[in-house]
Amino acid sequence: MHTLLGMYALGRLDDHEAVALRAHLDGCPDCRAELIQLTPVASVLGQADPDRLLEPPPAPSPALPGTILATLDRERSRRRHRRIAVVAAAAVTALGLLTGGFFLRTLVPSAPPGQPVAFTAPAAGVEASARVENRAWGTGISLDVTGLPQGSTYNVWLQRPDGSRMNAGSFIAGGDRKMSMNLAVALPMSDATMLGVSAPGDDTAILQAPLHP
Amino acid sequence: MRLRMSRKRAEESVGNLADNAVLRTVYDDHAGELFALAYRSLGDRGRAEEVVQETFLRAWRGADRFDPQRSTVRTWLYAICRNVVIDASRARASRPQLADTEPPDVPVPERPLEQLLVGLQVEEALRRLSEQHRVVLVEIHLRDRPTSEVAAELGIPVGTVRSRVYYGLKALKLVLEEMGWHGDQ
């Protein structure tokens, strides 16, 4: 009898059979307990889409784990720098202001890392500057953008010599407010020829800067 | 066996996401599903990858708040991912749309996102079932086909189809529970 419970839980027995099964359930605590077990799973089964099930599940690009690890690596080093800065500040207090300036300068990197790149012919009213840095895990990018329409989303990418692009992240533009960001890409800097910004779904570069002029 | 052990380790020591090896195991176990959720929600591969990236970043930052006594890694990552997807949908909704750039089937409010989440999870569980079990559940319940027709197509008695539905549901429940489902959806 219990093999009918699956059909019953799914509401797939005809009226006659359902009545018979309910009569059985009245006198059978085991089957009742079993039905209670099956009911939640029967109710979520209907949420599945049989057509989606046939498609292979979409998979992220194989480069994604590298990008994530690189981003975390960057975040870690930023935290380390922050910690060094705190320690350095303590040292300054202890040693006195005269020598302190010297200590700070040696412990905390004073200039932003990487080399500047120049964006060619940005649209009127748009200002952008960026630095790129070759790292063990790929390329680090720090990007400042002003003047793109407030609230719009943009993708940042590196382009390879063959014209293919590797996603570097995305940002929401702030209109006249300067948006500054650090991005990490799992692509060695020597393999990239161009840094660019475009709107999602449109390959046209809104901003682009050659990396090896 | 080794995989199983490293998974177990990842489950226990996710608080230690600082370890790249742990992170990689967690990624291998869950990134596919997180990506599928983001992709189905947003309809764009690039944005879906950004969501996965942001999910792992937030997980890494909040790793000390993860309590293995209270939830599985999967449930925890899903909760983060859901928030990132919602943030991403809002960010997009707040800017002007071009009519033809909107991907189909984009759930906007949060309730459909929950449904999508459950649906994708059930689909993933169905993929892990045996062919025998999956076929009857899909044809009879999802495609709404008469048992007799399915039985004829498979060349087995109706009674066998029904008992496969029963064992299929039981198997599905086990797989869903293994995936961290508690039957509260």
TrEMBL record, chain A:
Keywords: Membrane, Metal-binding, Transcription, Transcription regulation, Transmembrane, Transmembrane helix, Zinc, Zinc-finger. Coiled coil: none annotated. Signal peptide: none annotated. The keyword Transcription regulation applies. It holds the Pfam family zf-HC2. Residues 3-32 form the Putative zinc-finger domain. The chain crosses the membrane at residues 84-104. One of its GO terms (molecular function) is zinc ion binding. This is Putative zinc-finger. It comes from Rhodococcus koreensis.
From TrEMBL, chain B:
Gene3D superfamilies: 1.10.1740.10, Winged helix-like DNA-binding domain superfamily/Winged helix DNA-binding domain. It holds the Pfam family Sigma70_r2. InterPro entries: RNA_pol_sigma-70-like (IPR039425), RNA_pol_sigma-70_dom (IPR014284), RNA_pol_sigma70_ECF_CS (IPR000838), RNA_pol_sigma70_r2 (IPR007627), RNA_pol_sigma70_r4 (IPR007630), RNA_pol_sigma_r2 (IPR013325), RNA_pol_sigma_r3/r4-like (IPR013324), WH-like_DNA-bd_sf (IPR036388). Transmembrane segments: none annotated. Residues 27-93, 125-173 form the RNA polymerase sigma-70 region domain. One of its GO terms (biological process) is DNA-templated transcription initiation. GO terms for molecular function: DNA binding; sigma factor activity. Keywords: DNA-binding, Sigma factor, Transcription, Transcription regulation. Belongs to the sigma-70 factor family. ECF subfamily. This is RNA polymerase sigma factor. It comes from Rhodococcus koreensis.
